[in-house]
Design brief:
mainly alpha; 424 residues
């Protein structure tokens, strides 16, 4: 569920610099609507460079709006480091400006927090959201209440990411309380997001009875909503509710929960974005990974198996490859090496059929996992071959830390396997 306000287009009248700024804003809007992202970024950069020092209040508002939209566009493109810098520029130049749009500055704080959360810079994200909560304390207008709801939702999500689940629960409850019954345009969106955040924190605390008691009314209340934002929340709630039912002891409702989930995703009347199905499969995979990290390996296997059935039903090949690999990792941790090898080979079969851009280091990681299983099974020549295949998947120029680290691991494994083969 997104927490950041959308881009804003402010309109002014006038001539000279005001008119020129407005024309550039028009140009950026047209480029955004046409999906020409680089043109959007270039236009905002040019606009800010030309008019940032202009003292005209109307021009200053246009520049502040351009900075906000510039940062928002960068965040949409997952360029979160750059987005944070632009939002900081807006906050620094206009945060103490008596003529500035206060809500625009607060929105910049919220969006900055969202980008910091995406970068996993959790302490900084919490500070950004806390700032908005502080300055909007006692909010009475709808716009202030909406901004504060966004900030509390950001706090709930960041606290959960930091494994501070009890505090995350309190923040999620605050979102629901702020948004409920005050006539906000997006009241339902905030209520659903707060309920979903609460349920996920309860899952993390192994409070499955309570999480199911939150998922169920969320699904019942909003399951037929056609708003894409609501559908994104319900899609996630559906699969997480079914997984929570699996974890209840005893659970008599898991089969019914999964059946309802599959029926909802298959309902053509909802007009679901196909990306929601892949996101839902990824949510199941993420749940399995969290269980694996907590050494709940049997539960992780159940989650990965459920995710595979879901992905196979709805055609998420990329997620299927990831689920199969992660299932292999669980088998490895259990010492079930033949099962692990079978899962890795199935993952490779799926991944090699994907577009080239989806291979690279991801495929190399699976090959290295396969090599480990082959070593444990005493098949050294095949393990060495898998290592060389993994090395061949790396980009010619190792431009990321991940690729460089993986290359080092591959070279070390090749040396290890060669030594084992020689000594054998």
């Amino acid at each position: 569920m997104p927490i950041a306000p959308k881009s804003i287009f402010a309109w002014v009248t006038g001539s000279g610099p005001e008119l020129n700024a407005r024309q550039m804003s028009d140009r950026a809007r047209a480029a955004a609507e046409a999906g020409r992202h680089q043109e959007v970024l270039d236009t905002y950069a040019e606009m800010v460079a030309r008019f940032e020092v202009n003292a005209n209040p109307g021009v200053r508002l246009q520049v502040a709006t351009a900075l906000f939209n510039w940062g928002h566009t960068l965040a949409d493109l997952s360029r979160h480091d750059d987005a944070v810098q632009v939002f900081d520029r807006l906050i620094e130049r206009h945060g103490r400006d008596d003529e500035a749009d206060v809500m625009l500055v607060n929105h910049a704080w919220v969006n900055k927090g969202a980008s910091l959360l995406a970068l996993h810079r959790l302490a900084e994200a919490l500070a950004a959201f806390d700032e908005v909560v502080r300055v909007t304390d006692g909010a009475i207008s709808q716009s202030e209440r909406e901004t504060q709801s966004r900030a509390w939702l950001g706090l709930a999500q960041t606290l959960a990411e930091a494994a501070r689940y009890e505090e995350a629960l309190q923040a999620a409850d605050r979102v629901v309380a702020l948004a409920s019954g005050h006539g906000l345009a997006d009241e339902d969106v905030f209520v659903a997001a707060g309920m979903l955040s609460r349920a996920e924190s309860l899952d993390a605390l192994d409070e499955f009875d309570l999480s199911v008691a939150t998922y169920e009314p969320l699904i019942d209340r909003f399951g037929a909503d056609l708003d894409p934002r609501m559908q994104a929340a319900i899609a996630r709630a559906m699969v997480l509710d079914a997984l929570a039912e699996e974890r209840r002891r005893p659970s008599d409702n898991a089969a019914a929960a999964w059946r309802r989930t599959f029926e909802w995703f298959a309902d053509e009347r909802l007009g679901l974005d196909p990306a929601l199905r892949e996101a839902a499969a990824s949510a199941i995979d993420d749940a399995g990974l969290r269980q694996m990290e907590r050494s709940a390996l049997d539960d992780a296997l159940v989650s990965f198996d459920r995710g595979l059935v879901f992905a196979e039903t709805f055609g998420s090949a990329q997620v299927r490859g990831r689920l199969l690999n992660n299932k292999g990792v669980v088998f490895s941790k259990l010492g079930r090496w033949p099962d692990a090898l079978e899962a890795y080979e199935a993952s490779l079969a799926v991944r090699t059929s994907l577009d080239e851009r989806l291979k690279g280091t991801r495929l190399a990681l699976v090959l290295m996992n396969k090599a480990e299983a082959l070593v444990e099974l005493g098949r050294m020549a095949e393990a060495l071959s898998a290592c060389f295949q993994a090395e061949a998947q790396l980009p010619p120029l190792l431009i990321t830390e991940e690729a460089e680290g993986l290359a080092s691991k591959i070279r070390a494994e090749i040396a290890r396997v060669t030594s084992l083969a020689s000594s054998g």
